[in-house]
Amino acid sequence: MNHLESILPAHGRRICVAPMLDWTDRHCRFFHRQFSRHAWLYTEMVTTGALLHGDVARHLAFNEAEHPVALQLGGSEPAELARAARLAADWGYDEVNLNCGCPSERVQRGAFGACLMAEPGLVADGVKAMRDAVTLPVTVKHRIGIDHGEDYGFVRDFVGVVAAAGCATFIVHARNAILKGLSPKQNREIPPLRYEYAYRLKRDFPDLEIIVNGGIQTLDQAAEHLQRVDGVMLGREAYQNPTILRGVDQRFYGSTAPAMNDAEIEAVLIAYCEDAHRRGTPLNAIVRHVLGWHRGAPGARNWRRILSDTPRLTRGDFTLFDDARAALRTMQANFTTFGEHAESSSQV
């Protein structure tokens, strides 16, 4: 039995956290893992060039606690993709994912990302090369179309060609990618969501694993999608409000283990920060990922303010965690007291 079989029930990708450039680095993924043992985590996109000609350890090192974790690759040349996939296997990743959805002009200049959807044969060659090189699952993340085309047949044919090369899992960002005129941020918001395209893919390819991505903000929404597809990928909501991941294991994986509470997560996080800081990691590189932890709760603004104190972060002042926690707890206590007082007054 491999390590995945020992920790994962069937359908491990029922809930995933999307690859997000500049966000889902190793520190972010470690933090997210404290909320869910089973959600599938993805790295930021790493280009084949960065791996084959750069600092491999900087891009691929991760904490064992992050499993299950997938490496997302950006590239289009089959031989280079195969070499990068072998590196992923050597470093212990659980999946290799090919990015066919990023619309940025920089990525287009490298002839990969969303523009690859116009070349399904090339994507199929890349998938085959990676599958020949490793035993890891090779998956593809893509959009439903390019620019303003709305023909479902475009994405259906893309999936059909790539599936014939051996790809069994497709992560469908249910928006078009507008290659000219929109920024990456606008491409995540302006093109309309068409979840029905992902549902149709599942109906047309029932043997494939289809995961839907885009605009999903609650676990109730995830549950609705899971009635029609195999998995759901959460993006910005998981980063900006990581507590959405709390309860995932119990609701979607049948776990009977209690979720970690805030105090337990804080203790793990502080120990992680102390160890990483001793190894030379700037404190801000980790803390920036936890600013949204208590979003919407009383005291969240003070939590963010204290943990954003640049001078204290720079000098590695770990007492800022104590101050942030104290400010949060004080505001919550005041809020509770005020609420109880207001309720008592209304009953007089």
UniProtKB/TrEMBL annotation:
Instruction: Kindly state which keywords UniProt assigns to this record, in alphabetical order.
Output: Flavoprotein, FMN, NADP, Oxidoreductase, RNA-binding, tRNA processing, tRNA-binding
Q: Which residues cross the membrane?
A: none
Provide the site residues for: Interacts with tRNA.
99, 185, 188, 301, 304
Q: What does this protein do?
A: Catalyzes the synthesis of 5,6-dihydrouridine (D), a modified base found in the D-loop of most tRNAs, via the reduction of the C5-C6 double bond in target uridines. Specifically modifies U20 and U20a in tRNAs.
The family classification in the record reads: Belongs to the dus family.
Q: Which HAMAP family match?
A: DusA_subfam
Task: Quote the protein name from its UniProt record.
Answer: tRNA-dihydrouridine(20/20a) synthase
Q: Which organism is it from?
A: Robbsia betulipollinis
Per the record, the gene is: dusA
